[in-house]
Amino acid sequence: MTTVASSHGPTEVINARRTESVDAPAILQLIAQRTHAQFGRVNIVHLIEKSNLSVTLSNEENEVLGFAGFLDHPQIEVCDPADWPSWMKEAKYDLADKSTPLNSLFLHYFVAKDDYTIGCASEIVRTVFNAVPELRFIFLVLPLGTQPEPALGEIFHPLKTEGHNSLYVCQRHNHVPLLHIRQAVVEDHDDLTPLFKRLNNNLTETYGNYFLAEMIEAQDEDNHALVAEVGGKAVGFMSICSHVNVKFLQDCFELNPFHGLCKPHENDILKEEYPETSETEEPSSSDSAPVQTVPSTTSVSEIRDQPSNVSIHSVSDVADKPGTASHEERGSILAPTPSDHGVTPAPSQASLNGAVLTSCKPKLSEAHMGTSSASLVLEETLEETGNSEAEEEEDVFLNDKLDSDTDKQHPFEPTYAGESNVFSIQLFCISEQFEMRSSDFLPEIFKFFPNKDIAVITVPHLVPEFPLIQQFVRVTPKPIANVPHELYVFHRHGLINSHFRVRLACTVDYEQVEKLVANIDMNEHLLEDLRRYNSARRDADGTEIQAYVADCLGQIVGICIIRREEYIEHIRSHYNIEDFIYFNHHRRDEHGHLHHFVLNPIFQHYSKHFLKEVLRQGHKSCLYYPLYPNYTEQDCVNKHSLATGLNFMVPVRARRQIDYPLEELGINAPSKRVTAKFPLYALNHINRKLTLEPKVTINARVVVIGASDVGIAFLESICFCPHLRFNNLTLISKRGLPDSLHSSALSYTSDDLAYLSLRSWVNVVQGIMTAIDRSKKQVVMSDGARVSYDHLILCTGQQYQIPAPTGADVENSATNHDLSKSAVNRPLDINLPAPENVMALNDDWNLVRLRQWGTKMSAKMDKENNQDTASAVVVYGRTFDAYVTVQDLLSSGVQGSRIVLARPPTHNSNGALCDDGCNGDPFNEPIISDAVAAGLTAAGVRVLDDHVLARWDVEPTNTGTKITAVAFTTPTKPLLSLPCLGLVSLHPRRIDHRTFLACNDACLVFDGRLAIDSNFKTNDPAIRAAGSMTKYARRYHADGYGSKHENFNSREIGFRLAMTVLPLFDPTLDGTNEQNEPPPPTPATTVKPGTPGTMLTENPHDKLVPVYTDAKVTYGQLPGGYKYLHVRKPGERPAYTAQLESPEHGDEIVTGSSERGNYFRLHISQYRRVETVTCLVRQDAVQLPMTNIVRLFGVHERYLNNLLSRVNEGLISDLHAFFREPWALALFHDRFQDFRQEVRDLLSCPPSGASSLSSLEADVRQLVEEDFNVNNQQRATLRERYAATGQRKAVEARLLSFLSYNYYHLPMYAKPGMV
């Protein structure tokens, strides 16, 4: 913040920020006649939308005092925005030869509050120069003879010209001059010491009060110290050294793009000697997919075996000691994590004045990342790997083990014989006032080492990315590296900004482009598009192609190929691009589709400028880039390659779609461009505004254990923060990152995961956690590998375990009454080998294998004639998943007579065996339970009730053992022997024993489950947990079943978990929770924060359990050919009979029946809101639009076309048909909930123009407090006031606006004037 003075003397404390569209009304109030004279009449919202940079000044009351909009081209019509440099040269303006698109912006609009115009203009200009380090000139173009207003006249100076417009310039050196950099002398000690002490005392405490003077005095040809001087005073310091442990860096980081930090040598080995084995090399992380795969067999702790003093040699005296501040010493040891630019390319032969320019070998889309995660939906993969086993032992399940990495070959490592080409920055410190000019050091430091081309700096993971290293390229760490710092690299040629230019590609560029992309996967498609552009400028179907190259001193260092976005309607309707743009302010031809983008890593810090130039020269305002899942057809994937630049784009969330009854709608259905089925992809986006908006880079290592619904939701919330870039997100999971989740909760479908493309942002480690080393902050894997963390998130949930036979003496007629609860629910010891035909069904990998096995076994079963003695498949469990598994086996071809559903008891003499209040019935609704039981009977499935596994008989196989028969105890007499082909276990469901041991041995509080507080923290503040593995600590008195996380929406829990972590990193969020100050009031509490200005010793909100509001959903296919969908309110689920007996139950509406396959039950609460929805349908009877029906939860029945009154009048006989009528489709729109909130906000405020009146909501609350039952006269009075005050018209206007703005989704609604 700073202050500006008015012409009359009063001052205002102001804050400069980027302009938002909501500022437009306040900006309009500042417009004066002089503004129109200079800039004409301008649509402010359109200007904000199209500006590369717009700045607003506001005071402490958030009142707008000034505004300015800047674009990368002049606003005159006679000048083509794509070629304004030529216009300046033709008009012979001064500075025409010095101004470039990289160092110039144009002021398009300025307005400020009277009396503050001069101060606002100066502050805005200073802010812009600080925000854009490369900027040197700000131009103002006015009609010839027009003078700028006095505030601008003091800042902008006219240039000589022969043109027809007046051009004024504001130059950097008049406002934010370059720092004077010189070699340090001992006399600088007195200026620098207070600066170091203010930031950090670690160096002084370690080396004494005069360490800085000693360092300056010890300068020699290999060690130098520089200072930045302003007004004769040193305000910044940098120490550099030419001694670097290059071999250590090569071992820890992917340095191929920079030739291993060595000079080229004839003995370098840069390529694999045996090309035929090159296919086994694993691609490294790319910017299009910054993914680092750490194989479970690779020990991440290998680096720890190095001597403890291994570091960059030049920092052994100073920078290898701990203690860094936000602007103090930057660099000591080195640390790995995923790449900033994301590519680990093999070096190419192109060079620029001796600098090695390497192209990149990326993962071009998610479809190229299959090696980094387990693909769970492609049965073909399993067919290839499992056929041989299945043919040898058809009655044995495929082994449920992790894929072995023993056959994987290590990727080829280049060998560099040349001398070191690098020097290091040991220590860096600068005053906060001048930190935006940190890059002024860079040109000077290379002068001290003319024979070195690369500067490196290392920073700890938890140090925020400061302005200096924003010019550097972050280097990808190798998977085995585990050192605690990040490595950043800057090449000498990155300083050549005046010669870096972007232009249209031409035919002669082809050879250089071919060399640039020689080592990029699928480069042939990029080159094919370039040839097509050179020959015809368009595709065969007429689609325009635009190709641009980045040229530096005559050498091609980057290429970008775009096309017109032909499916922008599909993008708008399926993705939330309106989170980033106002769609109506962009012409259709201004949307571009990015196909290929490659930029040499040396010039990585110019990526946004490259994209900005593509937008300007291509007359585009937006670019879109898709990332396809790994099962997409190659014909679609091959059209795209993105080697660099993805980190500078923002991921766009997908929108929930309406399931349209297209046949019933007919001509009133949405356009085919909206409803057409396209290949699924995750969308990334950049527009003009974003090209000059930096992201906050976060290097903290956030490790998530478990690919559960909660874990995926947490990662989604983290990755889709558009202004944050997490470099070190890691997921550790047994199966890696799945393509679909085996879950009945519908939290994430396979389509949802495809829209996320999490493997583009998350490192995936396939393995099992066995220990947590809290002292070293490391997770230990089952193979001994270690993964370091700064924040650990445990989301493993609970898994079905293989049951341990109770060992009951069935020969002597043992019964269930002889068993304890622990015996019934005890899993098999993990140290004991399980029979090969026993499987605990926990994920899609298991499910696909089970379906394959069922298909193969059905053929074998048909050959057995004696059905009485034939073996059967035993499904053991009474959960909802057990019934779904039976249906899966039936669908796989297994005869119902060969399936046995053994259901363990819910109670025995020793107490309850089930935790919920539904007596072990997963449906909790007699009609559903009876229908499923009838379906089991009709299919011939045997159901064994209250059976407990007592014994299994095994026989040896070539690789282990398999069970041949099982025995059960019952409440009466035991079942001595049941011939068994295989056992599918869905009981018991417990926390994995290895997870328990890891938590328990790490001394995390484990009280039946992992204990957490209301912010998901365990007793270790660096470890958080959520999901069904957790429970609230006992101090919350929330031990009931209804407070456990499995009773709530997993996606909402993951989001809430992310919201507790983000304040640690996001500067835009209030992180006061960490400083014991109360958060904003939430529905969880009514406790008041206390007196403002006083510090609370304890946050009262921490004593309250969070309140979750999203619906709990259950879906699955059940025996009888049924599809089942159940939506209920979160929390405890009482027995169905108890619900009906409650006087506050509300109303129930039931249509259809299970026999006809169209059952629909709707429970309306006493507050007239939909609280429960149950559907049981057969596909041949009725369609089940699941996404639509889920949206009914929480909606007031009046929104449902006065549902209760219509039911009472007998007008509704089929709820399925009722909700498929065209009028209901708006209810299912993804923005309908926002519309409801807008209406609520409208009625919560006083009527427009009558602020003295109370709001309608306040009046209703007052009546309810006086008498809960509002009589008819009071209702009539409220209606009259609602109509008289204009609020009715306001609500109707909002409704029409909602329908009009979303008309591409809702064309079935009539607009005013249509009828």
UniProtKB/TrEMBL annotation:
Residues 274-350, 1069-1090 are annotated as: Disordered. Residues 1106-1227 form the CFAP61 dimerisation domain. Residues 275-284 have a biased composition (Acidic residues). Residues 16-264 form the Cilia- and flagella-associated protein 61 N-terminal domain. It comes from the Eukaryota. Residues 287-314 have a biased composition (Polar residues). Pfam families: CFAP61_dimer, CFAP61_N. Coiled coil: none annotated. This is Cilia- and flagella-associated protein 61 N-terminal domain-containing protein. It comes from Clavelina lepadiformis (Light-bulb sea squirt).
